[in-house]
Design brief:
single chain, 60s Ribosomal Protein L30, Chain: A, 5-stranded mixed sheet, binds magnesium ion
């Protein structure tokens, strides 16, 4: 079968290699090539044009409500976090609803109220939007697109000054995936896999002991604190679809460096680990909605860790590894002493998690 005869599958929306090749081979072919500071083909978490960070994100999580969150909270936090990880402060969102015929109005209102709460938490406002309705089918009740803009802050400038103190020739104006260099440390802000398993438990009616909840949360205030009070951050991602494995591979590939992580340092809740073992899943490949992967100059890594651990959302943070030029790609020093390659997942094993 030639490529022209192929169809979209669920894997095309699951992060990982299949989705990335869809974006590279199709979307970039038509929309790439704009002359802006951080263009589409950088495939970073957001674009930068005229000093404004711009991001658009559609949310099709199924079911609409799950332990620890709902589609409205993800719709706000997802876009806010993609803007925040470039070092910008998000301030306004646009929101497009596609509602499915038959969605209970009380569910719609519950989603709106959750979005309002999350907006307040993040300090952003929804300022424009649109509502459409489609016939009953397989939409899962509603799909939400949120786009947002963010701006530079004093904290970002201060952070970049700190980086320049430790790294000569550093010229980047934003926190970018391509900024990692040898010796940088990699921090993860907390336990991984919680969100994907919380959604999976709602999809499949599994309880996993009833304690696994989504981590979905806007992280922009935490990011600004790190930039302002510590500094030295060079690269950052929110490890959503495809999980930590996908995020680390993107950083490594775009920066042209190797990343070595230590298995015993990667924070995973015991119940998440047990559920993953039971289902044959790898927590490294499972999506998160309230976590940061941070690349920081080594001189500032301990301080960044300390600040993270003093916060509610960062209390389980760890320095999980470092940047090396000994190899390319991502490798993990395992508990038993060997090294294993962490490759980019084909796609997140849990469908429609965001
Ligand atoms: Mg992202």
């Amino acid at each position: 079968m030639s490529e022209k005869d192929e169809y979209i599958t669920m894997l095309h929306g699951a992060g990982g290699t299949v989705m990335h090749s869809l974006v590279k081979n199709y979307v970039l072919k038509y929309f790439g090539g704009s002359d802006i500071e951080v263009p589409l083909e950088a495939l970073d978490d957001a674009a930068v044009i005229d000093d404004i960070v711009l991001k658009s994100d559609s949310h099709a999580v199924k079911p609409l409500f799950f332990p620890g969150g709902d589609i409205g909270r993800i719709a706000v936090a997802g876009t806010v976090n993609d803007i925040a990880v470039l070092g910008a402060e998000p301030y306004a969102l646009a929101c497009g609803f596609i509602l499915e015929e038959g969605l209970p109005l009380r569910d719609f209102e519950r989603i709106l109220a959750s979005m309002q709460r999350t907006c307040r938490e993040a300090g952003v406002s929804v300022v424009t939007g649109d509502t459409k309705v489609v016939e009953k089918g397989n939409l899962g009740g509603c799909v939400i697109n949120t786009s947002g803009i963010g701006r530079r802050t004093e904290a970002l400038e201060r952070n970049l000054e700190v980086v320049k103190k430790y790294r000569s020739g550093f010229e980047a104006r934003w926190i970018l995936d391509s900024n990692l260099r040898k010796g940088d440390r990699i921090i993860v802000s907390g336990t991984i896999g919680d969100h994907g398993l919380a959604v999976l438990s709602a999809q499949e009616g599994l309880s996993f002991g009833g304690k696994i909840r989504s981590d979905v949360k806007p992280l922009n205030r935490l990011v600004q604190r790190l930039l302002n009070e510590v500094g030295g951050l060079v690269a950052m991602k929110d490890p959503t679809r495809g999980g930590l494995a996908d995020a680390l591979n993107e950083l490594s590939e775009k920066s042209g460096v190797g990343v070595l992580v230590y298995e015993d340092k990667i924070p995973v809740r015991r119940d998440v680990q047990a559920a993953c073992e039971m289902l044959g899943l790898d927590p490294l490949e499972i999506g998160n909605e309230g976590k940061l992967v941070i690349g920081v100059v080594k001189e500032k890594a301990e301080e960044a860790l300390e600040l993270l651990r003093s916060t509610e959302e960062g209390r389980d943070a760890e320095i999980i590894g470092e940047v090396t030029l000994e190899f390319s790609g991502v490798a993990m020093q395992t508990l038993v002493g060997g090294r294993r390659i962490i490759s980019r997942p084909v796609g997140d094993p849990v469908p429609r998690i965001c």
